[in-house]
């Protein structure tokens, strides 16, 4: 999954803005197939949509996109990308809108029944599903939600592992099956949790199942203004070492800068 | 089960599997392996062995090829565990493993590993729809 995200970032990077040669330095760590995007919801949803469109149109893989709330519009930069890319690829994305955690579990659990399984499973706003059945609920996390979070994350991992086997047996170039989900903590949303320690415990649980994390952190320094951008963000890709990494190679640690311009365009820059 | 376990635990299961493959008549775990099991997994080791003795672990499989484990707990309740990662809906997994990070796994997951190593896992076929219900926690055979 980190390979898809890196592809997204490179596709939307300025050709003249790179201050690092991506081919220089030590060999990159092995891509992670399960990644958790943590940060402000508006941006994380854009990142997920970019990943879905990139995977479908550039890599030609089937995507299953789950969200609790309907997607009303695509980010501006995505609309421009779609105009220039193969629109047929977008037909490979299936959007589903389960209303509750139970519905989401049922839909993810039944992916193995599909004759054309996805190679990328995306879940937008895990926190919304875990927090309650009502979208936009202001109820914070309860400490008992660890089991629910673990069930969903484990089901997602097990489903991705099974679909990887299916794709590999078919000789498909779409293998492995990747998974990406977004999560917004109560602290980041400004909402108060009934149990202040509950939110971190949910993230701890999710970290057990996701191999890597993409953290979106707003940059409130002068950099946005200096770049004539409306917003600037730090994007950190991080993860512990996995067996597929080179023994002497680095663990996953990559930093990007994201500039969002007034017209909605997004530009990534490798730091 | 693709493992999230330390190398010492993986080696222990491989040793146990080798013992049972070489001496199919033996139903008792050698004391040396038992001591290692208790050292690595603590109190849940004996509880897991009780579940193994009771043949409490079943591997469900469906026509799509999807599989899952079901374990009958001491209270008679059914717990569904996954093939490729550690999860169990039992309170011990939630409290000891997830919340306190004081254990590698619960007795149900350990029983799965042991039954696989000792080749005493029951087998059961279910439909794809039943498998989906089992995996989602909304139903089961």
Automatic annotation (TrEMBL), chain A:
Transmembrane segments: none
Species of provenance: Poecilia reticulata (Guppy)
Protein name stated in the entry: SWIM-type zinc finger 7 associated protein 1
Domain of life assignment: Eukaryota
Taxonomic lineage from the root: Eukaryota, Metazoa, Chordata, Craniata, Vertebrata
GO cellular component, one term: Shu complex
UniProt GO MF annotations: single-stranded DNA binding
Any Gene Ontology biological process: double-strand break repair via homologous recombination
Automatic annotation (TrEMBL), chain B:
Keywords assigned by UniProt, alphabetized: Metal-binding, Zinc, Zinc-finger
Protein's name according to its UniProt entry: SWIM-type domain-containing protein
Source domain of life: Eukaryota
PROSITE patterns xrefs: ZF_SWIM (PS50966)
Keyword Cytoplasm: no
GO molecular function, one term: zinc ion binding
InterPro entries the record matches: Znf_SWIM
Domain SWIM-type: 79-117
Taxonomic source organism: Poecilia mexicana
């Amino acid at each position: 999954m980190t390979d898809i995200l890196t592809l997204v970032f490179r596709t939307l990077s300025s050709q003249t803005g790179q201050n690092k040669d991506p081919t220089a330095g030590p060999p990159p760590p092995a891509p992670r197939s399960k990644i958790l995007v943590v940060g402000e919801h508006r941006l994380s949803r854009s990142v997920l949509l970019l990943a879905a469109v990139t995977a479908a149109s550039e890599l030609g893989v089937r995507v299953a996109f789950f969200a609790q709330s309907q997607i009303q519009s695509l980010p501006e930069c995505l609309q421009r990308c779609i105009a220039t890319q193969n629109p047929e690829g977008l037909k490979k994305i299936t959007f589903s809108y389960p209303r509750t955690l139970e519905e989401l579990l049922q839909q993810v659990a039944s992916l193995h029944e599909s004759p054309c399984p996805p190679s990328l499973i995306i879940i937008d706003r895990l926190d919304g599903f875990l927090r309650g059945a009502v979208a936009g609920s202001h109820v914070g996390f309860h400490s008992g939600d660890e089991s629910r979070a673990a069930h969903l994350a484990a089901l997602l991992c097990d489903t991705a592992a099974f679909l990887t086997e299916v794709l590999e047996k078919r000789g498909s170039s779409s293998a492995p099956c990747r998974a990406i989900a977004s999560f917004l903590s109560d602290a980041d949303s400004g909402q108060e949790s009934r149990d202040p320690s509950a939110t971190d415990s949910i993230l701890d649980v999710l970290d057990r199942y996701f191999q890597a994390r993409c953290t979106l952190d707003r940059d409130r320094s002068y950099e946005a203004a200096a770049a004539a951008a409306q917003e600037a963000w730090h994007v950190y890709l991080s993860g512990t070492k996995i067996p597929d990494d080179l023994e002497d190679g680095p663990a996953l640690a990559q930093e990007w800068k994201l500039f969002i311009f007034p017209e909605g365009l997004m530009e990534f820059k490798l730091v | 089960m693709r493992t999230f376990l330390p190398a010492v635990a993986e080696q222990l299961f491989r040793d146990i599997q080798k013992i049972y493959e070489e001496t199919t008549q033996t139903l008792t775990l050698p004391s040396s392996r038992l001591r290692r099991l208790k050292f690595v997994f603590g109190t849940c080791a004996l509880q897991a062995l009780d579940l193994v003795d009771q043949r409490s672990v079943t591997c469900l499989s469906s026509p799509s090829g999807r599989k899952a484990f079901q374990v009958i707990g001491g209270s008679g309740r059914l717990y569904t565990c996954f093939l490729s990662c550690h999860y169990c809906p039992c309170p011990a997994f939630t409290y000891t493993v997830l919340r306190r990070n004081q254990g590698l796994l619960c007795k149900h997951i350990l029983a799965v590993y042991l039954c696989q190593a000792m080749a005493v896992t029951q087998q059961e076929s279910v439909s794809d729809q039943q498998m989906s219900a089992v995996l989602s926690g909304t139903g089961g055979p």
